[in-house]
Specification:
- This protein is an alpha/beta fold and 220 residues long.
- The chain has a single domain, classed as TIM Barrel (Alpha-Beta Barrel).
- It has ten helices and eight strands.
- Strand 3, helix 4 and strand 4 form a beta-alpha-beta unit.
- The longest helix is centred in the last third of the chain and has 22 residues.
- It binds pyridoxal-5'-phosphate (PLP).
- The site of pyridoxal-5'-phosphate (PLP) has 14 residues, from strand 8 and helix 10.
- The site of pyridoxal-5'-phosphate has 14 residues, from strand 8 and helix 10.
Length: 220
């Protein structure tokens, strides 16, 4: 089942789009099935759950943290996390830098932007991001690499609204790319699109989609 769904998805999505298999709440067996079907990138939104799964599964897996990350928990995932999608404050970015340094590595991150018309979704505003990126303190962070942006659209059936929100994120990426990351060729990730809206996200320029239920089935 899981392998069939993955194969079908891989046939549907363009080659330049990375598929993150969002395995939160799912048992290890489901992740093993996906791994055996060739999936290597998994996304989790709870630190403890991600650490437990990392311990039990093959080390080739690239673990993406896609949830709201509390600063006091960064230390638990700093040694192995592949990409942190949800950086939504300067304080969090500084803590990630500190823990990366302790582990003698660089951690890749995405800046999360608030693009939805909902109060419950986290993220930076464009102005906040610019202020941060302009600061000398930001320039001194040597153990984090900002790889791009991430955002979540409003949960709605209004296709045009979702299109508008995703195209807004694409535009933020373009502007930051020009203004701050001109010489950094790997500022190339636009993480947008979930099971319900990934097709729209790809049309709007997504390079990374995060799919849970369309691979593993509904969550409890
Ligand atoms: C749960 C989650 C997803 C996956 O959601 P599905 O609708 O199951 O595809 C993607 N991104 C984030 C940030 C999530 O928390």
């Amino acid at each position: 089942m899981i392998s069939e769904k993955l194969n079908k998805l891989h046939n549907d999505i363009p080659e330049n789009v990375t598929l993150v298999a969002v395995s939160k709440t799912k048992p290890i067996e489901d992740l093993k099935d996906a791994f055996e079907a060739g999936q290597r990138v998994f996304g989790e939104n709870k630190v403890q759950e991600m650490c437990a799964k990392w311990e039990h599964l093959p080390k080739e897996i690239e673990w993406h943290f896609i949830g709201h990350l509390q600063r006091n928990k960064v230390k638990y995932l700093a040694s192995f996390v592949g990409l942190i999608h949800g950086v939504e404050s300067f304080r969090l970015l500084k803590e990630i830098n500190k823990q990366a340094k302790k582990n003698d590595r660089t951690i890749d991150v995405l800046l999360q932007f608030f693009i939805a018309n909902e109060e419950t979704k986290f993220g930076l505003s464009f102005e906040e991001a610019k202020t941060m990126l302009q600061s000398d303190e930001f320039k001194s962070l040597d153990n984090v690499c900002i790889r791009g942006v991430m955002g979540m659209a409003t949960f709605t059936d209004e296709k045009e609204q979702i299109q508008r929100e995703f195209s807004g994120l694409k535009k933020i990426h373009q502007e930051l790319s020009t203004d701050f990351f001109n010489e950094q060729t790997n500022f190339d990730v636009i993480s947008m699109g979930m099971s319900g809206d990934y097709k729209i996200a790809i049309e709007q320029g997504s390079t990374m989609i995060r799919l849970g239920s369309s691979i593993f089935g509904k969550r409890n």
